[in-house]
Design goal:
Layout lengths: L1 H14 L3 H26 L21 H16 L18 H14 L1
Helix pairs in contact: 3-4
Length: 114
């Protein structure tokens, strides 16, 4: 059993000994890693759907500030429940590639805070 394993290992080592096959393996490995990262980056970078600020009246006058408060709740809820979480502090892949979404998140935080 051990002899068969050693023979298999030597065949694999001799097959990958050439420089061109090593580069080919490296390129394939990097591609296998990058494709899911790009797909995840695309998923995390999706913008939220548009919502219209309109109060549904129930035959009563609206309370002053209802639309502002409802918009604040909608924006904060989106930030908490968005795909990928809060990406502004990401320093690893794929979050480091995303430049627009962390800026968008910072703008949302500024709007919520102010």
């Amino acid at each position: 059993m051990l002899a068969r394993f050693r023979a298999w290992l030597s065949r694999v080592a001799s097959a990958t000994a050439t420089a061109s096959s090593r580069w080919r393996i490296l390129v394939v490995a990097v591609a296998i890693l990058l494709v899911p990262f790009f797909a995840l980056s695309w998923y995390w970078s999706r913008e939220p759907s548009v919502f219209w600020v309109s109060a549904a009246t129930q035959d009563r006058p609206l309370v002053l500030g209802y639309s502002t408060t409802d918009t604040l709740i909608q924006v904060a809820t989106w930030l908490l429940e968005k795909p990928g979480g809060y990406l502004t502090n990401d320093i690893m892949l794929p979050g480091i590639w995303l430049d627009n979404m962390p800026s968008f998140e910072f703008g949302v935080v500024v709007q919520i805070r102010d």
